[in-house]
Amino acid sequence: MATIIHNTNGSITVSVTIPLDGSMMEMENTILDAVNDVGCIATGEALKRFDTNGSPIIRERLKWTSKNKDSKKYQTPFGLTEIERYVYQTSKGGKVFCPLEDSARTIFAATPKFAQQLSHKYSQGNAYSVCKDLSENHNRFIAKSTVQNITDWVGSIACSQEEKWDYELPELNEPISTIVFSLDGAYILMANEGYREAMVGNLSLYDCNGERQHTLYLGEAPEYGKTSFKERYEHEISRLKTHYPDALYLGIADGAKDNWTFLEQHTELQLLDFYHVTEYLTKASYAVYPRKTKDIQRKKWLSDRCSQLKHEKKAAQTILDELNTFTDNKLSKSVKDDLESTMTYFRNNIAKDRMNYALHLDKQLPIGSGVTEAACKTLVKQRLCGSGMRWKMKGAKVVLSLRALVQTTNRWQQFWDKIIQVGVGYQAV
Question: Is residue 88 part of a domain?
């Protein structure tokens, strides 16, 4: 049992007795429980430092007076701690205000550090996995509903402040010469609407040698028209263009028309993602070598054409002309359809000058949206596409906002710094 033996001048001394019996594992669990007891006691005393002395206060141009002290339990990284604190009302009654909670930045009866821990864990796994991790690794037992309530509140803050809070870019080792904008979608299963497309965007900063120095991530729950996603993306674009007015802005995407419409408004150059092109060429290679016995030749042809795209100017047109020579050959319907779709894909993008890979590589510019492809997996699929998962709009939006903050270097801590700075809004006592 831990007890306070000194509490003076803003510091406390806690005494704790720890019995050392049993196996090493048992003793470690005993020690962990004792440390948690100390943490609960210390956190309770820390919370009290944010309380008033019970005197009347002026808030929202109204006089608020204190009722008697009220007892409340708070969730901390170490366990529950219960303290008495002053609560206030106006002379008209109505809602109750607790200055301690406002000043300490508690979130749904959780201390800010515990809310930070829970929301980070929840961005990586569901409420059940969060509870399991806390109980098995920290001897910390908490209900799934508590995890859900706290993380929903944190996620709501993230969603509501996404376009209002400005985040500082990290200090980078090299000057930035190119910034790539890219976006893509990933399908998730919604509770009442079937599969819908969530959007992922990234803004990647490259140095003059083509090395990626930093990436900003965005995630948005499925929405018709993608209005919120585009507004948030444009907000990030505006910040970057203010910070890097002389950089080259390049848009990389697959063949989706809506993506190009967006990117053409904000970039000087657009490029078709090289790896999507290779997928089309893979299908077309079966028109060049349709027989199963020609597998080695087919793979060599594909490798040669991919290399040609990277190293020869106007290679896309050369390959298109070559593919055209196979259109009259006797092919299965599926192979012929794949050949036609590949040729159409090439034709449309050559016309828009989106396939100059050799020129881009000569200038040390990226040619693929691999960062975005990876983000579709890490931001969306790993967390929202688990077995049996079905999402409501708010839940998907909360998780994607939290994951984007966590995955973008420096943003997670800045997000919490801003919560500590400006608060979290009114909370019911």
Answer: yes
* Residues 97 and 235 reside in one and the same domain: no
What tokens were used for 59? Answer: 């808030």
Residue 40's φ and ψ, nearest 5 degrees, are -65, -45
Give the C-alpha separation, 412 to 395, whole Å. Answer: 19
Residues 269 and 344 both lie in one domain:
yes
- Looking at 163, 197, 227, the residue that finishes a domain is 163
229 and 125 in one domain?
Answer: no
pLDDT tens across 76-106, in order?
A: 999 999 999 999 999 998 899 999 999 999 9
**Smallest Cα–Cα separation from 90: which of 60, 64, 68, 70?**
64
Torsion angle in degrees (nearest 10) through CA of 309, 368, 361, 359: 60
Tell me: do 136 and 189 sit in the same domain: no
Nearest to 345 by CA among 284, 288, 302: 284
Residues 44 and 119 in one domain: yes
Task: State the residue range of the domain holding 345.
Answer: 178-377
Helices (H), 49-124: 99-104, 112-124
The list of the chain residues with pLDDT below 70 reads 425-429
d(CA 3, CA 133): 28
Whether 31 contacts 69, CB under 8 Å: no
pLDDT, tens only, 220-269: 999 988 999 999 999 999 999 999 999 999 999 987 888 999 999 999 99
Rg (Cα) of the chain, in Å, rounded? 29
3-state helix, strand, coil in the chain (%, to 5): 50, 20, 30
Residue 226 shares a structural domain with residue 360: yes
At position 142, the amino acid (one-letter code) is I
Cβ(266)–Cβ(249) below 8 Å = yes
Q: Which residues neighbour 52 within 8 Å (Cβ) at sequence distance 6 or greater? A: 66, 86, 99, 100
CB-neighbour burial class of residue 328 (10 A; exposed 0-12, middle 13-18, buried 19+): exposed
Residues 126, 207, single domain; the answer is no
SS3 of 146-174: HHHHHHHHHHHHHHHHCCCCCCCCCCCCC
139, 29 contact by CB (below 8 A): yes
- What domain count does the chain have? 2
C-alpha 148, offset from chain centre: 18
Measured CA angle at 247 (ends 418, 406), to 5 deg: 30
